[in-house]
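User: Please run a holo structure prediction.
Assistant: Happy to. Please share the sequence and the ligand.
User: Here you go; the ligand is erythose-4-phosphate.
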Amino acid sequence: MRRTPAFRAWAATPGGMEFDNFRCRREALFAVATRTPRFRHIDRSHPVQGLRMPGAGASPHLSTLPAPQRRTATCTLFPQLRASALLRCSGAAGSAGWPARGLDWFQSLYWVRMKLFLDTANLDELRAAARWGIVDGVTTNPTLIAKEGIPREEQIAAICEIVAGPVSAEVIAVEAKAMITEGRALARVHKNVVVKLPLTRDGIEACSALSGEGVRVNVTLCFSPAQALLAAKAGAYFISPFVGRLDDIGATGMDLVRQIVAIYENFDFETQVLAASLRGALHVVEAALAGAHIGTLPFKVLDSLFNHPLTDKGLEQFLKDYNKVFATT
Ligand code: E4P
């Protein structure tokens, strides 16, 4: 992903993160999001914790600054919090102000909250899971699309009608030029489509080109941290490390997720880590502990997350006790 003008205003420095000449207004300040667990769930109304401004006292809030200073404030975030302030610039989208892609995109990067995607192209599974209200997006691959037997574009469009979130659609081409053409066409199917490209030389070339055009790319078939570094450099929106397939060959797939998360955090790459090829509940929990931004799960695995014998037993007992006293039969 290419950095937008707004992102260029954000510079990591040894002493913390500084934003210069950030033109923001009180009402435009949304929150502070941070990658430390303590602050992960800060909501929009939270005060600006950890945000320090020169000459503005101990724990200032942007709104406490006089207007002129507000417009040109240099903000330094406490380095130990590894925090990022979500500031909405005044000014026109795409110019000196707000990134053209809008608030959702911006928030999706810095609003750190694990997302769950469904790894399927099956509409029935998607409808069932969508009813639970916990599905944030979808991943597909050529195998999953082929299983449904419907032309890819048609199936992707139908998926986008069910789930309101990123939907990964994978290219079939293997040469960069053809991947770019196919990627552009897939991106036109629906605004939520994320183009999925394999982690090959051609795939990375196509990723650089498409990301530069503002097309979101999910780089897939990632099996090493070095590959993940290349994807981030090429501006990938998601990187998909395949945990289960590494386990299949006797490696510890989750180590890869941990390494990628650490590398990306070292350098503040915006690429989101999408733990893929998750085969069971333990994988999902470990991916969450590792700090993966997203886990993509087959329906069967998502469904299994609900299960606990003590939940069943407890519910049975509650109903039994209640009905002993209040049953109408
Ligand atoms: C997702 O993007 C991948 O295509 C998927 O998770 C692969 O899973 P598998 O290794 O179980 O086929």
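Residues 1-111 have pLDDT under 50 and may be disordered.
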